[in-house]
Amino acid sequence: DSGVTQTPKHLITATGQRVTLRCSPRSGDLSVYWYQQSLDQGLQFLIQYYNGEERAKGNILERFSAQQFPDLHSELNLSSLELGDSALYFCASSVAWGAGQETQYFGPGTRLLVL
Amino acid sequence: AQKVTQAQTEISVVEKEDVTLDCVYETRDTTYYLFWYKQPPSGELVFLIRRNSFDEQNEISGRYSWNFQKSTSSFNFTITASQVVDSAVYFCALSLLISGTYKYIFGTGTRLKVLA
Predict the structure, then answer these.
(1) Distance CA A66, CA A36 (A)
(2) B50/A105 CB distance under 8 A
């Protein structure tokens, strides 16, 4: 158990809908990362927050947004969902924010299926 | 352009054999970071190592070792005396600062099967 929790574990929804994925980092970790893993695109980095501020941005679509709240949990919002958004979404946390400066601990992932 | 290539799609070895997973990266930047991640059949992701571009020392952690060679732009991963529990998909990744923000570029992964 990495100490990172993600909810829900599974999510089935329809095209055009909006969903919110939630991540709670390990106690004491200030940085949160979001990744997407799909059969088509492989593993992709989406976005990183540190103590509430965006620190790094990857291949995140405009239909997607994220934020980190004062209690340090993070939410990834996916809107106008398309079939191609079906994927496993991982959250990770680390103590510090400098990319490459720290160990990342991963949550179990949220599997999203868009029908 | 930045790129990470893991040319080995799948490798099968017999338990106790040594195995090396190759990772070749492309970047013109002098400051960057390299990572290895493991994804066992259960699906979770496990962070294994990060290396910055200024630290060319090889690293050993138990049966795992990493060989970083800037001259060949490679960051290879060796498992000594492989075990069935090492069966997983292994991803190599490159992180660097682009237009003021860090980006991560992942390889396509190498599936390692360790047979008993």
Answers:
(1) 13
(2) no
Chain A, window 28-87: residues with a beta carbon less than 8 angstroms from a chain B beta carbon: 35, 42-45, 48, 55-58
Q: Is A98 helix (H, G, I), strand (E, B) or coil?
A: coil
What is the secondary structure of A16-77 as a DSSP string?
T--EEEEEEPPTT--EEEEEEEETTTEEEEEEEEETTEEEEE-S--TTEEEEE-TTS-EEEE
Q: Is pLDDT at A59 greater than 90 in this prediction?
A: no
Whole-angstrom distance, CA of residue A112 vs CA of residue B19: 34
Task: Categorize the per-residue pLDDT at B115 as very low, low, confident or very high, splitting at 50, 70 and 90.
Answer: very high
Residue A100 confidence (pLDDT) above 80: no
SS3 A89: strand
Do residues A79 and A63 touch, judged by C-beta distance below 8 A? yes
Mark residue A95 as left, alpha or beta (left: phi above 0; alpha: psi -120 to 50; beta: remaining). alpha
A35 CB neighbours in chain B (<8 A) are 45
Contact in structure between A92 and B45 (CB atoms under 8 Å): yes
Chain Cα centroid distance, residue B101: 23
Q: Are A25 and A15 in contact (CB under 8 A)?
A: no
Cα gap A67→A85, rounded to integer Å: 19
* Residue indicated by tokens 């909810």: A7
The β-bridge relationship of strands B74-79 and A42-50 is unpaired
